[in-house]
Design brief:
This protein is of the alpha/beta class and about 650 residues long. Helix content is about 35%, strand content about 25%. α3 crosses α4. The longest helix has 17 residues, at about 115-130. The two termini are about 25 Å apart. About 55% of the residues are buried. The structure holds adenosine-5'-monophosphate-propyl ester (PRX). Adenosine-5'-monophosphate-propyl ester binds near residues 312, 388, 416, 504 and 521. Pfam families: ACAS_N, AMP-binding, AMP-binding_C.
Amino acid sequence: MTSNSIDSLLHEERRFPPSPDFTEGSVASPALYEQAKADRLAFWADRAREQLHWHTPFTQTLDWSNPPFAKWFADGTLNVAYNCLDRHVLAGNGDRVAIHWEGEPGDTRTLTYAELTSEVSKAANALAALGIGQGDRVAIYLPVIPEAVIAMLAVARLGAVHSVVFGGFSAESLRSRIDDASAKLVITADGGWRKGKVFPLKPAVDAALADNASTVEHVLVVRRGENDVQWNERDLWWHEVVSSASAEHEAEAFEAENPLFILYTSGTTGKPKGILHTSGGYLTQASFTHKNVFDLHPEKDVYWCTADVGWITGHSYVVYGPLANGATQVLYEGTPDTPHPGRWWEIIEKYGVTIFYTAPTAIRSFMKLGREIPDGFDLSSIRVLGSVGEPINPEAWIWYRDVIGAGKAPIVDTWWQTETGAIMISALPGITTLKPGSAQVPIPGIKIDILGEDGTRVDPPQGGLLVVSEPWPSMLRGIWGDPERFADTYWSRFSTPEAYKYFAGDGAHVDADGDIWLLGRVDDVMNVSGHRLSTTEIESALVSHPIVAEAAVVGAADEQTGQAVVAFVILRSEHADAQTPDEASTLLRAHVASAIGAIARPRQVFVVTELPKTRSGKIMRRLLQDVAEGREVGDTTTLADTAVMQIISDKLK
Ligand code: PRX
């Protein structure tokens, strides 16, 4: 985060205590904090029993005998899909709407819990017939359509492991994820709707599997876009295979530590990490936080989280948390501004959404369009607002509360990560006095500390590095296939043999009230529109282009997207004069989009003749960031050649 945003955080001094009305009916109570403080493990054991149905009850809460490899509720067994489906039907809530789905072109589909249970059972039978069983990996590459949720739950029901790949990722990114997890099956669609058009998905799968050398045996294709697709021997239509399957499927119980999913996320190296989550602990924390952080009253609320199922927010707060809690939710396929800029508000009005969870980048883009647009819709059903993905600046916070929340809905700013699996820091509505710009306090049962470089705790208001000091139920259990990288990346920096501490990669400080303020990543990970991107991964994509000799990428502050990708490249000498810098920039921006996905497309690519390096050859990205953000260039004394920055700055003027 830049110094500008820290300044702006300091200008908003207003505090928002909970209204007595809200507190009276709120799900969360201060007793949760007290119980967690008195006995953290007993607290989580109670939550696991209260939130979930266990086929075999557990007797052991946490096994931390082999850190950093944790086991939660290890001798218990459960079925994750049963917890999200059948038990609600058996409890008499089969007619409750689970999903109000809205397609971008305006087509809709409503699924009750009973219907969703049948659909998932059919899909589970179909997958089993294709040979999918416990432990097998299934890649899912779908738009936000009901089949995405059905596919995830069907995989979970069989005790298999899903790896959802965001539909905006390229064929190459999909291939590397399929290979890393040795997926046996890919579930995709012909295409999906986005910005008024069908975007094809199947060709990316075909390209990813073109050499027939992967572990994939079948590709199951949902018909959604009605676009023409190439057909291969391994391909099967979802509607043929799933519709003919039986709607009866008995959910078998699996151990609490049975792997549930792998989700790839960017780290500091070029290769994305396959973050592994398991069943019992994950579902406990995802559902507990979903209920308490959003004050969910499942019998009357209509909840909407705008995340794509391809991200962790879509896993924990579209699929697992809400469905485990028996919530009624909205699922929307398309973009916020199609066919008109009020589409989201129209959806809120149409379904009477009461709880709304989105990202600051979206809020800022609506702010820019003006309040007239949301003011044209009836948003009076809204009673809780959530934010996730990056720090929310106080201006956006106040706008969100005033314009979307009618000046009274509490906002929960939730800090967490793909790795943490569920919310870790957040206010609890009805309890916490809200402070715009701060994520506030660890949820009950979570222990967070802010440490200095030397590992000692820093005192307010000094900034430091955020660590989680005790294991938590929804923690990642590892990086798929790479236990060393897991131990190294997260646990080596601050752990001692007596105390293992998880290093999150975020800077933060605590104020005198004990509220936590997130200050952005401290590693080579950028946050663009709430999505994580690795500088190294984009640099690798750039140098894979034949005209590029060297590349350096930085995340530069951007009013709209939080950070934006800015690249500096040196062209190979034989190409340096053959292209104008503008041509090279256009070419390379497109190249990154096709290598990784459109989200990684640089905002700018600057062609330079030198990059600032230390004497040991390390690129000083900090200086490039100064240039990219239009600031005066900082201290250059450690550069091998101190004139370099002058050359770069002159060139970009
Ligand atoms: O830097 C933090 C930022 O997003 C990172 C995690 O990204 P990802 O794994 O993609 O998960 C995003 C959705 C949970 C964190 O390391 N981040 C996430 N939420 C917040 C945040 N930064 C500040 N405030 C937040 N509420």
